[in-house]
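Lab notebook: predicted structure, single chain.

Context: the supervisor wants predicted structures on file for every construct in the current expression panel, including those that have not yet been purified. This is the next one on the list. No modifications to the sequence; it matches the entry in the shared construct table.
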Amino acid sequence: MGKILRKLEKGLEKLTERYFSTEAEMEKFVMNNLELLLGDEIEPSDPRKWLIIKNQLGLPSKSTGSTYSIDLVLVDQDAILTLVEFKKQSNSQILREVIGQVLDYSTNVVMHWTSDYLKEQYENELKKAENGTDPYKNLCTNFSLNEGFVPAGYYSDFWARIKSNIQEHRMRLLIVSERLPMNLAQTISYLNEEFRNMELLGIEIQPYSSESVSDIELFAPNLVGISRNKQLILGFRHTRETFMEEFQKQVHDPVLISELVKVFDWIDNHTGGYKYRFDLNQKKRFYIYYDSRIKKHEFCSIDIQGKVTFYPTMGFPKEQHRKKFEEYIMKSYQISPSTKGNFEVFRIDAEKLIEVFNVIKEIVEQEETRDV
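Prediction complete. Output recorded below exactly as produced.
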């Protein structure tokens, strides 16, 4: 990394690389500043949000016969378990042992951890907190969910999704250090391209401060081994069939699967301009748009676990039509927009979604008729 310079009243000051005194200090700091785990770079189109299950959580190892202590266990909003291992740059084990260590974690997680066990650990940790935070409220806060509009059963469904993801070996492994050796960074990138369900990433959180100050003043975090590269290199793009196959592996809900099939069938059999697309670098969702005479109105996506997201700004460039669409969605689904201005619905309802499609067509036709 090049020089880090800070502007002063007179000239520039060079900032100096700093290091945490211990791995425990690094772990504690990151726990209190989870944005350093770069959720917005891991998934730019849907930034990862983190929920802490527990730090220093024990995990038996079949290969060694002993018990590991995983530095930090998180889960993201898609119920993907995320195991974080902290290593100081000066730790001689960082290149020699850490890859084998985290891969051993993934094997033993599937063998020994259940979603009920993780749920118990999460709730017990919150009971220890001085303010006695409610587990459900804490989850909603961390994932930016409006409690009043989250469907009944969401909390229990979330832990059921964790169970499904663990069974499918679908998890994320993060190796965090001040700076990763080049050989380790290359190994992380290579292995991540080879994995099908797991994601192995490295995060450098290099701290800096001025030469005259010992306290850390600035971070320059960097993500290593992003899985998006694998999809771009291999040219992966879902089809309806491959998306449905992956959807069924994750959801295990015949009703939800049937609802998605109805949506696909309606679009495939409809001649009125509705289409869907799968991005080259996106395995987690597909987008639905209305292709009018003038432009594509991309207004909706469905993710791999059945969440529907509406995008008023992407769908309607004009404010009056956007507001009309927003009002309809709020009334139809009894929900409010998220902080991004989008609307999230946590279960597919094909009949209601098709009604939305028809409303969108009416708004678009009104908009474009006036523009002619």
